[in-house]
Amino acid sequence: MATLVETGSETPNVTGPRKPHREDLAPGEVLCMYCPAKCCRYFALPIDEPTSWKDFEYVRWYLLHDRATVFIEDGVWYLLVHTKCKHLGDDNLCRQYETRPQICRDYTTKKCEYEDDWVYDHYFETPEQVEEYAEAVLGPRKGRDIRSPRPR
Fold it and tell me: What is the pTM of this model?
């Protein structure tokens, strides 16, 4: 847990133990002791790859909802919902560890996001980004353009 150190300026310094590299953990330590619990702050579900304007409209609709994004990783499309697990404690550890769901039991830290270097093939946060991507993949939509008309 980081501690606040007053420095005499208006902006305090936050100091505390540095996040160790995976390979530097002491025996008995686990990554979760140092992690902000990213894996417990969202869930991602695979979705069908959109291939038509109608399909892309569904993806745009997802992004009209709070805390939703869409990403593509290794050619697979996912709907990502940013929401904290209700069993995640203030210390970023599970409060229901012994009775956690099977999906949590099966999850390992071997390929988790601990290093903060996660990169997606594509990441969409707004409906407009999806519209632009769809136009690039499918071509302009007949009778409708995402761009404003040219001034006369």
Answer: 0.75
